């Protein structure tokens, strides 16, 4: 993930967190601006936890096969 770390982050969330745009307790937060994340097989969910960003669509679900 490449992004401006001064205004964004990447949070690995579960399906519920992804759907509701909430960060579950213990979620891994990435904030380097150049994050490399190894995907688990199956669905992986990520969002930005900056206020309003996820609800504006800054989230992604990736199906790793």
From TrEMBL:
<dbReference type="InterPro" id="IPR003245">
    <property type="entry name" value="Phytocyanin_dom"/>
</dbReference>
<dbReference type="InterPro" id="IPR008972">
    <property type="entry name" value="Cupredoxin"/>
</dbReference>
<dbReference type="Pfam" id="PF02298">
    <property type="entry name" value="Cu_bind_like"/>
</dbReference>
<dbReference type="GO" id="GO:0009055">
    <property type="term" value="F:electron transfer activity"/>
</dbReference>
<protein>
    <recommendedName>
        <fullName>Phytocyanin domain-containing protein</fullName>
    </recommendedName>
</protein>
<dbReference type="InterPro" id="IPR039391">
    <property type="entry name" value="Phytocyanin-like"/>
</dbReference>
<feature type="domain" description="Phytocyanin">
    <location>
        <begin position="1"/>
        <end position="65"/>
    </location>
</feature>
<dbReference type="GO" id="GO:0005886">
    <property type="term" value="C:plasma membrane"/>
</dbReference>
